[in-house]
Amino acid sequence: MKRFMMMVVVGVSSGALAGGFELKGDAAKGEAQYKTMCVSCHGEKGDGAGPAGGALTPKPTSFIDPANAARLTDEYTYKVIKEGGAAVGKSPLMVAWAASMKDDELRNVTAYVLKFKPAAAKKK
Ligand code: HEC
Fold this sequence. Notes:
Radius of gyration: 18 Å
Helix content: 40-55%
Distance between the termini: 41 Å
Bound molecules: heme C
Strand content: under 5%
Largest sheet: none
Number of domains: 1
CATH topology: Cytochrome Bc1 Complex, Chain D, domain 2
Order of helices and strands: HHHHHHH
CATH architecture: Orthogonal Bundle
CATH class: Mainly Alpha
Structural class: mainly alpha
CATH superfamily: Cytochrome c-like domain
């Protein structure tokens, strides 16, 4: 009986770990990546108005637009950046960055992008 209880406890706690997504990114470190790889389309202010972005259809996402804030969760944003727009039904002009960045760099740049979200949307 004692052994059975142990198994139940272990099973429940590992299940909880598998379900939760933790970004663990460092926005301060992600800034450099953003400025070299993302600014041309998404813009310095994260408003989607970078110099190369204007010519694209659809336009690069504005991270500061409250209308996009609910969609841009930690997990979703990390996935788009890692796997590209096509992986989430968005434009393939947003390429997958997994080949150009290590996982911790992907997480850092994600954290930096999330800082552009309007203050009200950050409170979950
Ligand atoms: C060549 C231009 C270009 C570059 C460079 C670029 N993106 Fe994008 N990105 C796009 C476009 C276009 C979309 C919009 C896709 C859509 O609306 O279908 C997008 C969408 C996104 C989205 C949100 C998807 C959504 O649901 O609206 C995120 C997050 C994102 N990009 C992050 C990044 C990051 C981080 C970088 C740098 C590592 C980057 N992008 C570089 C063009 C670009």
